[in-house]
Write a structure and sequence with these properties.
296 residues, five-stranded mixed beta sheet, 8 helices, 30% helix
Length: 296
């Protein structure tokens, strides 16, 4: 699936302006489903001790290596009220419900149903209690920052159940792993690199901010001067201005005559001004017998 998307072989969104809104909505849902499948299938099949465990750690969920290995992935389960989250992960003491969005927003309340997140929290928490696990809803969007208005449908007493993150954090996580000193097997590295490239192609690259500069010691020090002062150099290989570079012990005097070439002084006149040239029958240039040969 990665290769098909990376090479543009999945025409997901319709380009026909005459198609109705329902068709466009299905296309968007399909794009989200494929993205969800690509990302979390990676966490399911890649080395879980390296990828799944460490990714959940970035979200605040600490699990052991064995718990990561034994984790159960349930894609698009259906509850009794027909609510269908994107993914449920049973891992350690956690019941993690994943609801992922790409272009669309979370489902709003209708005359027949409550808002999507409320239904998922109620049904997910109920099932988590049956498994004796701690419930959490991981809401994933393509936003660079948390947007409060997208969660206005969730009442205050349900807000603690939600952990927001974005696809960009997955990209940043993969970048950190790929740039780390971990000696990944070739197949694991290529698997992770394909997913990272796919997220990058979709414009879901993460921005780590300027706090990363704090890791460099030089930025922690306060310096009196951060630019080079030319007057302190013993050797000057760069231009530092006329006032200093042309400094001489004596005084520069004015020169009344030209010291540079002047076009007004013509040393050669055109031969045509001397009149018509007469033809010359004999050779006026040296004629040799061949390349490099000459007569003595």
């Amino acid at each position: 699936m990665y290769a098909a998307e990376l090479h543009g072989k999945l025409p997901l969104k319709s380009t026909n302006n005459n198609e109705d809104t329902k068709k466009d909505t299905k296309d968007l849902d399909r794009m989200e489903d494929i993205l969800t499948s690509n990302v979390f299938s990676f966490f399911k099949y890649a080395n879980r001790k390296i990828f799944l465990k460490e990714y959940l750690k970035t979200l605040g969920f600490k699990v052991t290596n064995q718990e990561a290995i034994d984790a159960e992935f349930r894609f698009w389960p259906r509850y009794d009220d027909n609510t269908e989250p994107d993914l449920v992960i049973l891992i350690g003491n956690y019941y993690l419900l994943v609801e992922a969005k790409y272009f669309s927003n979370f489902g709003k309340e209708t005359t027949k149903n409550e808002a999507q997140l409320i239904r998922e929290i109620k049904e997910g928490e109920s099932e988590a209690k049956a498994y004796n696990k701690y419930f959490k809803l991981i809401a994933i969007t393509a936003d660079h920052i948390y947007k409060k208005y997208k969660f206005e449908s969730v009442p205050p007493d349900f807000q603690n159940y939600i952990k927001w993150t974005n696809w960009q954090q997955v990209s940043s996580f993969l970048e950190d792993i790929l740039n780390s000193s971990l000696n990944l097997p070739r197949n694991e590295r290529e698997f992770a690199l394909d997913l990272y490239t796919l997220l990058d192609k979709k414009g879901l690259r993460g921005f780590k901010g300027f706090n990363i500069l704090n890791i460099f010691d030089p930025f922690q020090k306060c310096l009196n001067r951060i630019f080079f002062e030319a007057a302190t150099a013993k050797f000057r290989g760069a231009f530092i201005g006329f006032l200093k570079s042309l400094y001489l012990p004596g005084t520069l005097y004015y020169c009344p005559k030209n010291i540079f070439f002047s076009r007004r002084h013509i040393n050669f006149s055109s031969l045509l001004q001397s009149g018509k040239l007469d033809p010359f029958k004999n050779n006026i240039f040296f004629e040799g017998k061949g390349s490099g040969n000459y007569d003595k």
